[in-house]
Amino acid sequence: MAPRHGSCYTPALIGMVLLCATRDAISEPVGNSREATIRMGSRGSIVRVHRGSSASAVTAGATASYPFPRPRLAGFSPLIAITTSSKHSPDDIDYEHDLESFYDCNPLVGPIGGVCGALNPPADRNFVVGYLDSGSVADLAAGSGAALLGLTCPDPDPDPTCPYINCPNMTCNSTPIGGVGEPVDAYVTQPIGIYAAGLSAVDSGGILDIDALVGHSNVAALAAPPIICEGTEQVSAFVGTPFLAFYTSVIRVDTPRSVTVRGQTFSSPDVQIQGIFDPIPKFAHAFGMELGSGGIPALTASYYPDTELDPEDPGYLITPAVPTALSLLPLIPPTGGLFFRDVQAVEGEPSPTNLPITMHLVVDMGAQVSIISETMRNDLNLPFEPDFTVDACGVGGLIEDIPGYYIDYVKINAGGGELEFSRVPFVMIDLPSSQLGTLDGVLGMNFFWNRNVTFEPSLTSSSTFYVSDPIPVAFADSNVDFHVDAADASFFLACITGPGSAGVNPECDHLDVDMDGSIDLHDMAKFQNCYSGFQQSANPNCAD
After folding, report:
1. Which part of the chain is CATH 2.40.70?
2. What's the whole-model pTM score?
3. What tens digit of pLDDT does each residue of 349-384 get?
4. Is residue 395 a contact partner of residue 179, using CB atoms and an 8 Å limit?
């Protein structure tokens, strides 16, 4: 047992971390509100989480009827390195993208005299760390990310109708992008090449291995203005379904990666973007995904030209009017497409009069958190008073006090055995109507925070999402790097509520080891037993 000093335990922990909390110090909750950075995919990011006061928020753990794993509020965010080139089709009326198994432009030179090169050379240094985002119908870069990828002008035109009129990589055509708040306009690029690789392709000096890239070319992407919330840019870039629908992506939570690029450190599960002949990991469970593309089959990805240009304009029938998206044929306007999965949900005790509700959710690898619509909130008979609230920031700015709910039971039918969850946190956002299908919400990666997954898409047959059995993770390993160290200690201390509290902040829910609705000295003792430091792996059974 650690030595006692008055009423305070001071265990000597590796890295000189001291956990010392008197009974008086933990009598006042300090976890009512927490600063956060939790991605909601292309919809924006949660920047603060507020503990609720409703009875259901106070209730800890799962009911006897639903003794299943409890997802965390935030799951993983699959990070990748993204870069660009000038590669496009030499055919003036070819609007279809071309899959690229390697970066076949010169990464050291720009597009001069028709030579294919990096838009902002050298490509091995001028790349961005962005996201796999299966919840987006287009590829996008924003703010400083767009500049690094060569998608902005050093001297934009002051004419507000087309700030990119003098930019060779951009068009004057725009499309609204939305999420949290009011939509803003993003501008369509000229046809370019977009390439990506997992963080394993970035070396210790922050240099990208060009040979590890795959991608697609002849692609019209979107360049958005900076998406800034409280002084911080929220999005660099992401690749959406025009890219992801043609590559199998494997995300390995059991293999965390951490890289430093331009002085900023990024951490993520390992991401492997599989080539055509690469073996596909198929984990213990598998469920199908439905491609929603507006009722029209999708066989390729393409943009559509700006037919309103003057026929004498050199860009006539070449300049994209809309970004590349999934489409039936390259010579008709694209419809876009997202991948959906039906899941079952029950609020309250199951009974003949309280049957499961089917939710039609977008499978969004770019969303750390799951989302339900207001209509689905009503269908589940959830109360108007939320269990918790969040503040979120998107392209339209900051929105405060967005409702959040714990849903008692969620089931995903799957080969290898159904996936069942208790007390599942969802954020409620009134999703816009879409030609792609009913949007009841988003299946975020918090369901799979401790599992490896494979996203295997197909446009002509069944698409499959493979899920591993749970990976053992030590109690209090909040960032899932398989160490319980100083970073986890800082997180834990900020979550302490003291005994007999009115509930736990949703971001801290996993630290309530005995599920009594408080994070107190009992949970602290478990943390002390689990502490490993950053050099040694934590024992996943340390809290038993």
Report:
1. 33-76+338-449
2. 0.91
3. 888 888 999 999 999 999 999 999 999 999 999 999
4. yes
The CATH number of the structural domain formed by 33-76+338-449 is 2.40.70
Phi, psi of 486, deg, nearest 5: -60, -40
d(CA 191, CA 320): 7
Number of H helices, E strands in the chain: 6, 30
Pairing label, strands 419-428, 370-372: parallel
Cα end-to-end distance, the chain, whole Å: 16
Compute CA 360 distance to the chain's CA centroid, rounded to the nearest angstrom. Answer: 19
Instruction: Quote the CA–CA distance of 175 and 187 in Å, as a whole number.
Output: 6
SS3 330: coil
pLDDT single digits (tens) 282-339 = 999 999 999 988 788 899 999 999 887 766 666 667 889 999 999 999 989 999 999 9
pLDDT at position 60 is: 53
Cα within 13 Å of Cα(460), Cβ side: 3
C-alpha 278/C-alpha 430 separation (Å) is 40
Structure-token match 């920047």, residue found: 47
Residues 298-310 have pLDDT tens digits of 999 999 998 877 6
